[in-house]
Design a protein that fits this description.
single chain, UDP N-Acetylglucosamine Acyltransferase, domain 1, 2 domains, 9-stranded parallel beta sheet, 7-stranded mixed beta sheet, 19% helix, 32% strand, Glucose-1-phosphate thymidylyltransferase, Nucleotide-diphossugar_trans, G1P_thy_trans_l
Length: 355
């Protein structure tokens, strides 16, 4: 079995972070989201992975390399522009050949991995296996409709009137029959080749399309809120480890990781928290569910439920929370200005000003 990993896409919902960085490489708990997926594939016994890349191809290649660090043999497959998930299958035809494969969307996160799912697919080998999870708002997802026996009877992409609350998770398992299906469909109203349409083609053709409703944690890390939530979830499984320097005036409470080369001075860290290598925290408080990447500086500030990417500094700004701060960012206090009101008032106005 091979893997097809989707790492293209513009990441518009994560802008401005993704103006300069691939969305799959934004870190949670100081590790790129994409890396969790690659590790899950390797843990499931997959050894060969085709990685679909787009405009951020150079960055993905630099981060993943030949895949050996993950136990994978990686082949890169260029996609000129994001034309849909089924389009990715279409252009990967030569690479995939007649092998079964698992398709993994590189910005998705599943706690617990996919080993059991891959093993079950290998044993039973349906034509296609999809993963579903219940969501509060299914309008933003591909949605599955099941009959009374739990069989998949219909699929829609981002429906205006969803027929269920079962959203497709970004992991799919296929036999080679999917290749005929992606060739048979046309672009949707969004101008993309939708994987839901290809799956519907299989269903209509009498193919064996099965579903598994997962009860574990899953997130599509497409926006800031989801990134922070995934970061929180990963940090909850953190093991305490102090490899860096923490002076006697500092306090660390709970599941705190201070990487080698990091320095904590006259500060308080309340876990779960991870402080990256080469980072200095001085005269500050870093609170729960916060990850600070390598070579950052946190001085005279408070930080909680946030992600700070590498080579950034936060200096003397009071409290920051629920935030995603990019690379090479400087956060400092605004210069003091006189307090004043500037008014343009018409005749006979009445104005009340709090002083």
């Amino acid at each position: 079995m091979k893997a097809l990993v989707l790492s293209g896409g513009a990441g518009t919902r994560l802008r401005p972070i993704t103006h300069t960085s691939a969305k799959q490489l934004v870190p949670v708990a100081n590790k790129a989201v994409l890396f969790y997926g690659l590790e899950s594939l390797a843990a499931a016994g997959v050894t060969e992975a085709g990685v679909i890349v787009g405009d951020t191809a150079d960055e993905i290649r630099a981060a993943v390399g030949d895949g050996s660090r993950f136990g994978l043999d990686v082949t890169y497959i260029p996609q000129e522009r994001p034309l849909g998930i089924a389009h990715a299958v279409l252009i990967a035809r030569d690479y995939l050949g007649d092998d079964d494969f698992v398709m993994y969307l590189g910005d998705n996160f599943i706690v617990g991995g996919i080993t059991d799912l891959v093993d079950a697919f290998r044993r039973t080998r349906p034509d296609a296996q999809i993963l579903l999870t219940r969501v509060a708002d299914p309008h933003a997802f591909g949605v599955a409709e099941l009959d009374a026996a739990g069989q998949v009877v219909g699929l829609e992409e981002k429906p205006e009137q969803p027929k269920s609350d079962l959203a497709l998770v970004g992991v799919y398992l296929f036999t080679p029959v999917i290749h005929e299906a992606v060739r048979a469909i046309g672009p949707s109203r969004r101008g993309e080749l939708e994987i839901t349409h290809a799956l519907q083609h299989l269903i209509d053709s009498g193919a064996d399309v099965r579903s598994t409703i997962i009860k574990g944690y899953w997130k599509d890390t497409g926006n800031v809120g989801d990134m922070l939530e995934v970061n929180r979830t990963v940090l909850e499984h953190l093991d305490r480890r102090i490899d860096g320097e923490v002076d006697e005036a500092s306090e660390t409470v709970g599941r705190v990781v201070v990487e080698a080369g990091a320095r904590v001075v006259n500060s308080r860290l309340v876990g779960p928290v991870v402080i990256g290598a080469g980072t200095e925290v001085r005269d500050s408080y870093v609170g729960p569910f916060t990850s600070v990447a390598e070579n950052c500086r946190i001085t005279d500030s408070e930080l909680e439920f946030s992600i700070v990417l590498r080579d950034s500094s936060i200096d003397g700004v009071g409290r920051i929370e629920n935030s995603l701060i990019g690379r090479h960012v400087e956060v400092t206090p605004a210069p003091a200005v006189p307090s004043a009101h500037r008014l343009v008032l018409g005749d006979h106005s009445k104005v009340q000003i709090h002083t």
